[in-house]
Amino acid sequence: MSQKIDLDKIKEKVIEELKNIYDPEIPANIYDLGLIYDIDCKEGETGAKCHITMTLTSPFCPVAESIVNLVKNIKNKVDGIEELDVDLTFEPPWTQEKMSDEAKLQLGML
């Protein structure tokens, strides 16, 4: 019998890794900036299958590809992830209201 996957723990670790990814134009991580709309982890055959829905501060972000690739690379950093897909969307558009208080504090907005 296979071992039960702790999806909550994997999701927590994914969030920890997301907090290590920074938008180079803004000194705050992409999670606290509110760029992550959803993290959905389900049980797969050999591990978790995670799907991340995210956006960017602008559809014209010059580092869009590198940020998305950093998010995809989380699969290689968190044990127990079998598959990780990233869906980049601009609906709804990102606004400063999506930022955490921590990010607003970092950016001098509080």
The gross shape turns out to be: globular
The overall strand count is 3
Question: Helix/strand/pairing class, anyone?
Answer: alpha+beta
Q: CATH superfamily assignment?
A: Fe-S cluster assembly (FSCA)
Widest sheet: strand ordering: 1-2-3
Helix content: 10-25%
User: Helical segment tally?
Assistant: 3
Tell me the CATH topology: GMP Synthetase, Chain A, domain 3
Query: Strand content of the residues, in percent?
Result: 15-25%
Count of folded domains: 1
Succession of helices and strands: HEEHEH
Question: Termini, distance in Å?
Answer: 52 Å
CATH architecture: 2-Layer Sandwich
The average pLDDT value, as a whole number, equals: 93
Radius of gyration: 15 Å
CATH class wording:
Alpha Beta
Task: Write up this protein.
The chain has 110 residues and is an alpha+beta fold. It has one domain (7-100): Fe-S cluster assembly (FSCA) (GMP Synthetase, Chain A, domain 3). It is 25% helix and 21% strand. It contains three helices and three strands. Strands 1-2-3 form a three-stranded mixed beta sheet, covered by helices on one side.
